Amino acid sequence: MIKPVILSLSACLVLVACGPAPTETSVPTQPLTQSPTAQTDTAAAPDKSNSANSLDWAGEYKGVVPCADCEGIETSLTLNMDQSYQLSTIYLGKDATAFKQKGQFEWDANGSVIRLLNQKDGPALYKVGENQLFQLDIQGQVISGDLAENYKLKKQNKTEPTLTGVRWKLMEIMGQRVAATEPDMTPYLQFGEDGRVSGFAGCNQFTGAYETEGLRLTFKPMATTEKACLNASVEQQFLTTLQGVDNYSLNDSGLAFYKARTAALLRFSEAQP
User: Fold this and answer.
1) Closest CA to 136 of 146, 149, 150, 126
2) pLDDT-derived band at 47, boundaries 50, 70, 90
3) Keywords in UniProt for this one (predicted)?
4) Residues 255, 252: Cα–Cα separation, whole Å
């Protein structure tokens, strides 16, 4: 009885060994799901605001900073939207002559510190804060110590000129001076408090709508008269350039339109209507 059982078991083992190899079972791929926390982190966009894009930094800053061999350095630094600057310094107690410099500045990668380019004498690095500049040392660090508060330049709160109620006469297009003509056919524009803008493009009159928010400025498509013009190149360039504007600066030197804070596209001066 024992021998048949052994033979039976051996036969079963042979059948198993000779049978087809087991196939690999494919598991359906399931889409990955995010946890509520991961979804929240993905939805929350990083805050990219910085001094360069969130502060009204353009303007004039003044202060008297410490001096090693004089009573102090009376400093005036003006920052413009096209990233140009004007710097004036007077060494108090030594010479009343103002040393003036002009040039361009650049922002650091974080958009919080500016560097005055081609600055050979004097500080070149400033941290930009709300209505003030902090002079930095040559390593780009905030100056500390008992005199730290004296290394600040404060923004001057002047009575700012306004867009409305003024006729703005075109002076430059893309850095090129607008030639004077006789009779005067220079383009100009005027902003209304009702969100409308009108003016003269060099041959035809135009009107349209505009929107402002802070220093941001956009123009809607303009409607113009249809007078035939012998030379419409300036007019066409002027009206086309207006449509590309997205911000502006307005100070004592006049009105300027920009796109993405590059060099000024258009510059205007105040003119009597």
Assistant:
1) 126
2) low
3) Signal
4) 8
Residue 39 or 161, more confident? 161
Query: What whole-number distance in Å separates Cα of residue 255 and Cα of residue 70?
Result: 38
For the chain, what's the residue count?
Answer: 273
Q: Distance of alpha carbon 89 from its chain centroid, rounded?
A: 27
Q: ∠ CA(9), CA(12), CA(14), 5° rounding?
A: 110
Enumerate the domain spans of the chain.
51-155, 167-271
Beta pairing class for 125-129 and 113-116: antiparallel
Q: 151: burial class by Cβ within 10 Å (0-12, 13-18, 19+)? A: buried
Q: How far is CA 187 from CA 11, 171, 177, 251, in A?
A: 106, 9, 12, 20
The closest alpha carbon to 99, from 130, 125, 129, 122, belongs to: 122
Would you place residue 19 in the very low, low, confident or very high pLDDT band (cuts 50, 70, 90)? Answer: very low
Minimal CA–CA distance to 221: which of 202, 204, 239? 239
Are 170 and 238 contacting, i.e. CB atoms less than 8 angstroms apart?
yes
pLDDT of residue 34: 44
- Beta strands 266-271; 254-258: pairing state: antiparallel
**pLDDT of 137-160, one tens digit each?**
989 999 998 889 999 999 987 666
Q: Flag the least confident range among 5-14, 80-89, 181-190, 253-262.
A: 5-14
Cis amide bond preceding 183, omega within 30: yes
User: Distance between CA 16 and CA 174 in Å, rounded?
Assistant: 87
Assign a CATH topology to domain 167-271. Lipocalin (2.40.128)
51-155 matches 167-271 in fold: yes
User: Does the domain made of 51-155 have the CATH classification 2.40.128.640?
Assistant: yes
Q: Give the C-alpha separation, 74 to 48, whole Å.
A: 35
